[in-house]
Specification:
Number of domains: 2
Structural class: mainly beta
Shape: globular
Order of helices and strands: HEEHHEEHEEEEEEEEEEEEEEEEEE
Radius of gyration: 21 Å
CATH architecture of the largest domain: Sandwich
CATH topology of the largest domain: Immunoglobulin-like
Length: about 300
């Protein structure tokens, strides 16, 4: 895996991908000659797709390495509508490959100049000798949770400041809670813009690109009616590694208590209470389970 400042991502993976896709892509429309068909490719190139593949700590610690080959049906709109693992390696890695392909937007195939739906076959190689930790593109990163007055819903903001040498635009993928209400992305001009989401087997992801060194985005989260407790639960994952980061909860109630002792607690000028937790760094796509119980 590459660092953020090195354009080589899984060197063996990219070489294998390039040669394989140029020479050996499996197509299921045998009646069409190569001259009549322009094959689909990921928007941003195959490096964009390989960047969406993570080699999790759990698989590395088990010494799992080898190749996974997936067939994908790319629609006329460039969406992956069906996948099939044809060369399996490990359930966890097979699922990572499947999810990455499902989240990828393709330039659709063209048959005689018209968009066509076709199958392609894509190999991925996981190599322990080729793996290296990806550096985080962020100088700082923090998440701020603001409960409503009834403590049944939460507004969540994620803020990051990028390093000076990060190449822009930068694609951001953030896993959303399954019961999120809305998403937003703030531009430097403080304009809130609409943002898209994509789905895979792990859930729904907020996806956008930023060309600015500071980014702010977020979502609203509502508790399920069947839950009587007032607690925030979220499986957080991002498509970039994070440095040590901060989680804060800002509340109007000064008698609010937390089941987990915070690292800091202050009262802001407007009377709101701010409690902060210091969290450790994360690898690319490494999930962090967040659960904060509010006790009034």
């Amino acid at each position: 895996m590459r660092t953020q400042n090195n354009p080589r991502v899984f060197p063996g993976l990219l070489i294998f991908l390039g040669l394989f896709l140029l020479q050996q892509c499996a197509w299921f429309h045998k009646d069409t000659s190569e001259s009549e068909l322009i094959k689909p490719h990921p928007v941003g190139g195959y490096e964009t797709l390989s960047n969406a593949i993570n080699y999790p700590r759990s698989a590395r610690e088990r010494g799992i390495e080898g190749s996974v080959t997936i067939n994908a049906l790319v629609s006329k709109d460039g969406l992956v509508v069906e996948t099939l693992i044809v060369d399996a390696l490990d359930p966890e890695l097979d699922q990572i490959v499947t999810n990455a392909v499902k989240r990828t937007l393709f330039e659709p195939a063209l048959r005689k100049g018209k968009p066509a739906s076709v199958w392609i076959s894509i190999p991925f190689v996981f190599s322990l000798s080729e793996w290296s930790m990806k550096n985080s593109p962020f100088k700082t990163f923090k998440m701020t949770i603001r409960p409503s007055s009834t403590y049944k819903s939460f507004d969540v903001e994620l803020y990051g400041k990028l390093k000076d040498d990060v190449e822009l635009p930068l694609r951001i993928e953030c896993l959303l809670p399954f019961n999120f209400e809305k998403t937003w992305v703030k531009k430097a001009s403080d304009v809130i813009q609409a943002s898209g989401t994509v789905k895979d087997e792990s859930g729904e992801w907020l996806v956008f690109q930023t060309a600015e060194k500071e980014l702010s985005f977020g979502f609203s989260y509502n508790l399920l009616e069947i839950l009587k407790q007032t607690h925030f639960q979220y499986k957080f994952a991002l498509n970039h590694a994070l440095p040590d980061w901060e989680l804060a909860v800002v509340s109007e109630a000064q008698n609010l208590r937390f089941s987990q002792s915070p690292d800091r607690s202050t009262v802001e000028e407007d009377g709101r209470v701010r409690v902060e937790y210091d969290l450790k760094s994360l690898e690319i796509y490494e999930p962090r389970y967040l659960e904060i119980e509010l006790q009034i």
